[in-house]
Design brief:
Rossmann fold, alpha/beta, six-stranded mixed sheet
Length: 198
Amino acid sequence: MLLRLLVRMASFLAFAFALAGCASRYDPEAPLIPMGDFRLGHLIVVDEGAEMLLVSRKARPGEWKAALTEEVQRQLGRYEGDRFYNIGIKVDGYALAIPGIPVVAKPQSMLVVTVSVWDDAGRRKLDEPRRLIVTEKLSPETFIGSGLTQNRHKQMRNLSRNMAVAIHRYLLTHPEWFGMPPLPEEKESPAQGGGSDN
């Protein structure tokens, strides 16, 4: 199944995600990264039918909706642009680590969602739905497995906060949506240039 394949891929990249995400965590004191005319409009989170991946603690109906709504609002609700943009989030799957044996088995928590972004005034979808995957950040609490050190509520809050940051990063890759110049295209290096077929 596609979700399970993505989960396997994400587990190999978990450490890289943890390092890459450290500089982008929510910090209410940090200056806002410019996002043009962006202002958060409707935020719709759907968690019905979320698949429980691998061995996991079970989230109750509505818990992901509440956690993600709070964290995305916290992350993106600070912008006060002149145009509303709506965000839809569908929770596809999750794993909330259960207690394991440190070193031998350290189950890892992760969250898989599909995100859609809409221009409210233009009533148009800005991109095809985007699937995002986040894992728990590397920390003293998660190094031995968060199943041993955190209850499900804390795991869900942390994953929801990580997902809010991931959604923010995704939006920042498309400044043209918000009335800003697009990001410059990456130039091919000589080593990456199109070679001959010989």
